[in-house]
Amino acid sequence: MEESKSKDSGELEEASNEVHVSLDVVNSSATTNHHQQNDASANTSKFWDKERYGVRLIPKVPAFVRDKYNSDDYDPLVVSLGPYHHGHPRLKFVEELKPEILKSFVNHTSFHEQLLLNEVLKVINDLRGSYAKGSTDMFGDIVFAQMMLQDAAFAVEHIVEHIMDQLDPNNQDFSGDIRLDEHLGRGVMEHVTRDLYVLENQIPFWFLKIALHMRCGKREGDQLLKNFLNWSSFRSVQVDDNLPAPGHLVQEIRTVVIAGWSSFDHGWFPSSKRDYDRLRHREKAIILAKIRAHAEVIRSAALFQKAGAENYLPQVPQVPQVEGSSSMTKIIHSFHSVTELKSKGIHIRRSVTNSLMDVSFRSGFFFSTLHLPAALATVRTRSVYSNIIAYEMSPQNYEKDYTVTAYVNFFKSLIESPKDVKELQDKGVIKNMLGSDEEVVKLYKDIYTFGIDCSTVYSEVIEKIQKHYNSRARTWLADLLHSYFHSPWTAIALLGSILVIGLTITQAYYAIHPKGDK
Fold this sequence. Notes:
Keywords: Membrane, Transmembrane, Transmembrane helix. The chain crosses the membrane at residues 489-512. Pfam families: DUF247. The chain has helices at 2-5, 9-28, 40-48, 63-68, 92-95, 98-107, 113-122, 124-128, 141-167, 180-195, 205-216, 218-233, 249-259, 273-307, 327-331, 338-343, 381-392, 403-414, 418-426, 437-445, 459-470, 472-485, 488-512, and strands at 346-350, 360-362, 368-372, 375-377, 430-432. By secondary structure, the chain is mainly α. The chain folds into 3 domains: 2-247, no CATH class; 273-311 and 324-474, no CATH class; 487-512. It has a 3-stranded mixed sheet with strand order 1-3-2. It has a two-stranded parallel sheet with strand order 4-5. The protein is elongated, with a radius of gyration of 28 Å. Residues 1-54, 262-276 and 286-330 have low confidence and may be disordered.
């Protein structure tokens, strides 16, 4: 072991440069002009000053939200990552394990622990700049660097251990090393995954990726992270490596949740070639929609860098209006739950993909269909959505993209009772891992969306639903069927009433016109 770590000065310098090269790779993905800079190390501070296009501040959840709305959703339950919750008494159990986890992490790299610490100290100002002003002042440089190194190592070891075990339960990657599951147990490990997606419990994404590359190599490290994001979001997505690097894992899981083409890994396969072709068509449509929606932001970013105007603010792209409607009619709608829509002839179907953008409405003369992406209700769902929404509402959401907030609001409007949940389960839209349907209703009702509606994201769908809902020509047959044929007993009662009326009319006729009369 000691011999393998005894590298000559040239090898140490090469390894050190590799860290800076990794920083340069991450940085260059966030700005188009960074590749023109020759010295990545010398320009690191200059780059990170451009928060809009590089590392973003990891925001804190507003106090008024904590005071009123499920504050535990915004706090880690078992492990702290970063400075915001460091030292909390209830997290002490896992905190005491971190030094051993760091040793295990170091054993899988070509570095001494002290060399790693020295490298962290070189970017200490960048790390401090990732957090709210004053939140790291109580930590000296060495203490803060040690904390960030331990936290990154812990997150990496959790990701690697979990995915390696998923791929091969008998894997030997951890032979002779400390294993998290053996010290923490399965229950705590589930909470660790949940804590990785708490907004105030983040380490900078670029720092996490460099640590992952040190541990596994770049290609394998990137694939393990993608697998972990897919597993924890119940999706199967390949995130475009050419997109600007996110600031933290919450931002990255948000991208995965929105994009989520399909849950192939969880049994939601296309049922036919027609569905498969539709899946590919929807993928292209979603990609084009997102490109168009963000074209102005991308253009503004390029202008920002070209002009060098530090105070320049890009224009927020305007959502195009659907022809023949006002913006107010898109925001205000009178329809409510899934069962109410069904009573008006609007039936629910599962979308081929489970991208949050894959919400569509198909009109028919009497009956129409609303296609919704598949959703999984688990113990992590509320916390993950709550923290993604908190990010969308933060000043760090420079793109002003509120897709997840809009989706949760729209979905909440469809679920008012356990009957709605049952209908969604029957159609394959919801997979309930909580138990009762009442728990699913409560789950979505308890997700706080800051009082922001954001209906413009689904404005076209909402308008089409409202148009069908308001049309008496389309809803009269559905009303008739719902009122008299929604159960066998009402249908029998209706048919019985019709039969009685028919017999009464027949009897009255023959009473007035006896058979013998001519």
